[in-house]
Design brief:
elongated; Phage portal protein; single chain; three-stranded antiparallel β-sheet; 2 domains; alpha+beta; 12 strands
């Protein structure tokens, strides 16, 4: 905060003028970290973004999780299970890739040393080792598990800063996610605490007894929390027109334009995921609506899900056979 003090003429007091500093932008003080490498402990590298934080963000906003589930569900509807990868394994891997930007598949071998199946490994705890082809499962730092060399396939979203871990595509909307969650929590506490019943009760009528004042105080205290929507009655004989006034303060002070905040954060989140709102069951605010859901779904699949299918087909090159394949996306029941 910058403060300026000025005196003029023979004024008996000085005037103070102050202004708040500008908001700190994301580009101001983060350039130094671009020169650093990923930290490691001699055995594995630490991810650039903590997976535990990304897992918590997944539950911060219904629009965020719903958009990810929509992508996963449409991809799963086109997936063709194979000998080495079933639908459950593909579903878990797809969810990990969309949430964390990384997906890991362990190749389990049969007794005859032939590939038996692909086992999903949680991205939350899987780490890339410092040696080529090395991966760790670190759910417990005291007893980490090291996979067999070259037995784990790592599918990742490309990152501009490093090539070890992936980075999810929605990171630009993190502030909107946190704003959406904070607005919801604030409004929930606002109603749970009964703050919306707050006001100033101004009385200038002469009441007959002091016990009347105490009774009014007790009734006001009881209006907070559960039962705060009960009616309030005051009897004042020979009272004036403005003898009793209700001056609302809590409603004005707590006015946060909740609806506008939710709509703005929702638009940012959906823009980061590039998911049409009609595919998420959102209700339009205008009379024209969002348009046909079928047309939006076709464009969405062509622009967003087909590239994801291409990414998952990289598993076939690593395994050496067709493990991942997809059927064409059909809206509604396929025709016989």
């Amino acid at each position: 905060m910058t403060e300026l003090t000025a005196t003029a003429g023979t004024l008996p007091a000085h005037a103070e003028v102050f202004s708040f500093d500008e908001p700190t932008a994301v580009m101001d003080r983060a350039e130094l970290f671009d020169f650093f490498e990923l930290m490691h402990n001699g055995r594995w590298y630490d991810p650039p973004v903590a997976p535990s934080h990304l897992a918590k963000l997944f539950e911060a906003s219904p629009h965020h999780s719903s958009a990810i589930y929509a992508k996963r569900n449409i991809l799963l509807s086109t997936f063709i299970p194979s000998r080495m990868m079933d639908a459950a394994t593909f579903s878990a891997s797809c969810l990990d890739l969309l949430v964390f930007g990384d997906a890991y598949l362990e190749r389990r071998m049969a007794i005859n040393r032939r590939p038996l199946k692909l086992q999903h490994s949680l991205s939350m705890y899987t780490r890339v080792g410092t040696n080529p082809g090395q991966h760790w499962f670190v759910q417990n730092y005291a007893a980490p598990f090291e996979f067999a060399p070259d037995s784990v396939f790592h599918l990742r979203e490309p990152d501009l800063r490093q090539e070890i871990y992936g980075r999810p595509q929605y990171l630009a909307a993190i502030q909107s996610l946190l704003l959406d969650d904070a607005a919801t929590v604030f409004r929930r506490r606002y109603y749970a605490n009964g703050s919306h019943a707050g006001f100033i009760l101004y009385i200038n009528d002469a009441l007959h007894e002091s016990t009347d004042i105490e009774a009014i105080k007790a009734a006001l205290r009881d209006s907070r929390g559960k039962g705060n929507f009960r009616n309030f009655f005051i009897y004042s004989p020979n009272g004036k027109n403005d003898g009793v006034k209700l001056i609302p303060i809590s409603e004005v002070a707590s006015k946060d334009d909740f609806k506008a905040i939710k709509e703005t954060s929702r638009n940012d989140i959906l823009a980061a995921h590039r998911v049409p709102p009609q595919l998420l069951g959102l209700v339009p605010n205008n009379t024209g609506g969002f348009g046909k859901a079928s047309e939006a779904a076709e464009v969405f699949v062509a622009n967003e899900l087909l590239p994801l299918q291409i990414m998952f087909r990289q598993i076939n090159d690593w395994v050496g056979e067709e493990v991942v394949s997809f059927r064409p996306y059909v809206i509604g029941q396929p025709k016989p």
